[in-house]
Amino acid sequence: KMTDGLFLKCCRHVAEQNKDIKFKEMYLDTVCLNMVQDPTQFDVLVMPNLYGDILSDLCAGLIGGLGVTPSGNIGQDGAIFESVHGTAPDIAGEDKANPTALLLSAVMMLRYMGLSPYAQRIEMACFDVIREGRVLTGDLGGSSKCSEFTEEICRKVRESE
Amino acid sequence: MAFRRALKRLLQEIPNQGSRCYSTEARQMVTMIPGDGIGPEISQSVKDIFSAAGAPVDWEDVDVTPVKGPDGNFRLPPKIFDSMDRTKVGLKGPLATPIGKGHQSLNLALRKAFNLYANVRPCKSIEGYKTPYNDVDLVTIRENTEGEYSGIEHVIVDGVVQSIKKITEEASMRVAEYAFAYARDNNRDTVTAVHKANIMKMTDGLFLKCCRHVAEQNKDIKFKEMYLDTVCLNMVQDPTQFDVLVMPNLYGDILSDLCAGLIGGLGVTPSGNIGQDGAIFESVHGTAPDIAGEDKANPTALLLSAVMMLRYMGLSPYAQRIEMACFDVIREGRVLTGDLGGSSKCSEFTEEICRKVRESE
């Protein structure tokens, strides 16, 4: 009641000062129950540390795992964007890796830096390549090399100028 | 408690010749808390189905509406404690959240009175009730007495509060031992301890240590350890990889609801609270006041909880028949309540299960 109560009180306070954005409150267990039944009902979720650790990984799982999930750490004095998957030592140096997670994190970074048009083009190129399905790395179900996947995205980015 | 275990062993040793050989077995009394809203209807469904199965269970209904004590505060009626004290086994329907001050939480009171230390939720995909996930068959076992819900919070200074997560060796050992015993009794393969001991080195570390210790003494059951966030990540991608999961209180709260969501929600999920001095099985959905009294409710969650209860009481053959009848009806899909995608009444659904139960004798 005190700890999560304080967190909630602060959220409500900020909500009052941002009335153009809708505000909701939900118990963590209810969120989890609903998240696996219909994740489309959720938009932006803000929460304390431990719940965030859990939910962020849960939600990454919903879209395909850490290999395709971007991440950003925002600070008062700076920000660091990062891929949250592992180092994959078994395929390191073999031109098999999937750069999507790091790329989408870099896209987040571009938006943070106020360079949205570039973010938009790069993101769209990345999603187009994955959607078209012709040039995909192994983990995405294809057999292309990392460099081929990358070059395909580069191609699309250049085309979109 | 010792009598119950002896009876259970005795029943397990009797060769399975069908229900006939149980005709002289002792009838057992169970405390029934029908609850509010749809509670009375679904409780009646359970009683009807048990009756159709010939289960040797008698019911002692208890109304847990708070009563005003001499001090003016509302309290739970003593008869609930009296009843549970005698029967040691309870089945509980949904309770409405009480409005007003001075009310003691029933769940908390029951948990304390009967030392209910493990919350058990078997989550199995139900054929005929489609969800985005298939072939789920896991069990969450949640330590239910301490951890993040110890209720110990305090203000440090204005704007800074702290909460204490208490983990004890006693509670951790107890729930770990239960998890392995459950796995063995229910022919499960693997127990996985869910934790965050990388972050909470002392608390989750102690919990994990206890699990490892118990694992050592139960080498016939496989043991794994997994970080909670990894479990969640993997759970939504492939829940079939999980079997029995044991974890501290908060993680259990989260995971048990997550897993209930995978199989279709609280309306079809059974739940049991195991204690040293008794056990209470309960449906964990709401009271559904909008459909209460209209013969529209789905009794599945309470029925499957009652099935867990039968197994706990050493009456597995009845549990098996009732469970199978329930699953058959849902799979066949002809007689389903609204929430399951049909248009049948609660009573029709119940009668269909009764019919199948009688046929299976």
TrEMBL record, chain A:
EC number: 1.1.1.41
Residue intervals of the Isopropylmalate dehydrogenase-like domain: 1-153
Alphabetical list of SUPFAM superfamilies matching this protein: Isocitrate/Isopropylmalate dehydrogenase-like
Name of the protein described by the UniProt record: isocitrate dehydrogenase (NAD(+))
Protein source organism: Magallana gigas
BP term (GO), one: tricarboxylic acid cycle
Oxidoreductase keyword on record: yes
GO molecular function, one term: magnesium ion binding
From TrEMBL, chain B:
Main location: mitochondrion
PROSITE patterns in UniProt: IDH_IMDH (PS00470)
Keyword Oxidoreductase: yes
Cofactor requirement: Mg(2+); Mn(2+)
Biological process terms in GO annotation: isocitrate metabolic process; tricarboxylic acid cycle
Highest taxon, organism lineage: Eukaryota
Stored NCBIfam families: mito_nad_idh
Protein name per Swiss-Prot or TrEMBL: Isocitrate dehydrogenase [NAD] subunit, mitochondrial
Species of origin: Magallana gigas
Lineage, opening ranks: Eukaryota, Metazoa, Spiralia, Lophotrochozoa, Mollusca
